[in-house]
## 1
Amino acid sequence: MKYALLLSVLALVACSGNTTPQAESQPTPPPVEASEEAKMITVTGTIVFKNLEGGFIGFDANNGKKYMPRGLAKEHRKPGLVLEITGEVLDVLTFQQYGEVLKVKDVKVIDDSKVGQQSNHY
């Protein structure tokens, strides 16, 4: 009985607040969208192949970061190939969890002399 009375009082107190919607008292500013240029990055690094769950292509940037290139053309999926990739980092998770997903927009081949000379270290 005491609990029922307490719950009733709590429900009345919760419902007796300010009935004016908060949006009217403090307008919410419109969301700020980043420009397309702000999302784009350009990184140089090496294509790697990792033999995990059937294998996947990764991109080890010269700055020490690792990326999962999305949309990389077949001719650029050669382990050991050094590329400069311009793209957009996406906020998604992958099964491999190798690095950030990089949606490829532009590719420039820097060096193809080491294609096929890469070891498979994870």
## 2
Amino acid sequence: MDIIYLHEVRARTLIGWYDWERVAPQVVELDLEIGIPSARACASDDLVDTIDYDAVVKHIRKVLEERHFLLLEALAEHIAQLIMQDFGAPWAKVSVTKLGILHEVGRVGVTIERGHRA
């Protein structure tokens, strides 16, 4: 399977279990691996034969601005489902990271994998 990857994508969303986390949107960092439905783009050199990663990032940012999540797990699941349903990816691996949210901890996050990897 061919995979598109996007690392260190920054997006803003309301996220957190604790009330103090939900006062204002936080920046989360996303690492995405997206299975491409076919290898046609390798031969055609045409964007229509692959997943437009610019469109993926814009869509995720728009959705996250409008949604509130309590848990990183729920946020990661939502992004994985969005990638597979809205962009036709057969497989997605999503890592979501909160930056500097805990004292003396630089990053806190979760990684999930959904779909079928060929």
## 3
Amino acid sequence: MFDSLSRYSPQALGLLRIVTALIFILHGTQKLFGFPAAPASGLPAAFTLFWFGAIIETFGGLALLLGFLTRPVAFLLAGEMAVAYWMFHAPRSLYPTLNGGDAAILYCFIFLYLVTAGAGAWSIDGSRSKA
């Protein structure tokens, strides 16, 4: 029964990419614009590590949402999430549920999957490869 579902893999991959990107973009816009709410620590000062992270999250997330340059963008975002985890979460505790880093780990591995799998359905990358 489940074998017949494999024909929907491109669409499932596209949905994973789109939903992940939509949620990820909010992490960047929160830090850049205070939307949907400003972080508890306030907006980061321009040209700081947090500010550059917010730029990467917002515009990298937008590129992923559109499926534009998915593999290189996903590689960059996976690296950002690995750095975020090891610099800011892991020093607090060994356990992700205690250090607040579980989302960073999940994003990192979803982005690594997108590096290998590509954009899936409904992407600029897909439409460019058909031309």
